[in-house]
Design a protein that fits this description.
- The chain has 164 residues and is an alpha+beta fold.
- It has 5 helices and 4 strands.
- It has a single domain, classed as Glutaredoxin (3-Layer(aba) Sandwich).
- It has a 4-stranded mixed sheet with strand order 2-1-3-4.
- Helix 3 links the parallel strand 1 and strand 2.
- Helix 1 packs antiparallel against helix 2.
- The longest helix has 28 residues.
- It is elongated and about 55 Å long.
- It starts with a helix and ends in a 15-residue tail after the last helix.
């Protein structure tokens, strides 16, 4: 699953939706509001888009964690996340608080405007190998996806993943 394709798809969806809503509200054409919508989306989602581009350009695989400091599930998931990273130092950890501008990457990966935290994703050279949202994953799940990342397993079907 291509990270940048998901980012671009999400932005295109938001652009269409916002242009339609503004055009209807102010009784103008969508073309007349497109510049305002584009500017708004650049301001709102630009930092998250930049983060996605940075992640895609990395040589090392990335383990991404988007959560919130006051989220009970996020707090419960972090120890397993940290433990796995200690065992696999070749993964680059990226921890983002959802309240930061870059945290909106959550919605781009998830392809939804709403959802539950945390989002945990393993990304290699712009390819999302797995992601989970709203739940903790245990060491075994991390390890399974890590092994798949390195081609040590040919099976590509996972019961709880959001991979398409």
């Amino acid at each position: 699953m291509d990270l940048m394709a998901r980012v671009q798809g999400f932005i295109a969806m938001k652009q269409k939706k916002l242009a339609e809503e503004l055009a209807e509200k102010y009784r103008v054409s969508e073309d007349e509001v497109s510049e305002v919508v584009e500017s708004f989306l650049t301001d709102a989602y630009g930092p998250a888009q930049k983060l996605a581009g940075n992640i895609c350009s990395k040589e090392m695989p990335v383990l991404l964690f988007i959560g919130k400091k006051d989220c009970a599930i996020c707090k419960r998931c972090l120890p397993d996340f940290e433990r796995f990273l200690q065992e696999h130092r070749e993964l680059e950890p990226i921890r983002i608080d959802y309240t930061q501008a870059e945290g909106l990457l959550y919605h781009m990966i998830q392809q939804q405007e709403k959802g539950m935290l945390p989002l945990i994703a393993m990304i290699s050279q712009g390819d999302i190998k797995m992601f989970f949202a709203g739940e903790c994953i245990g060491h075994e799940a991390y390890e399974k996806y890590y092994q798949d990342l390195h081609g040590k397993c040919s099976q590509n079907i996972y019961a709880h993943s959001e991979i398409t």
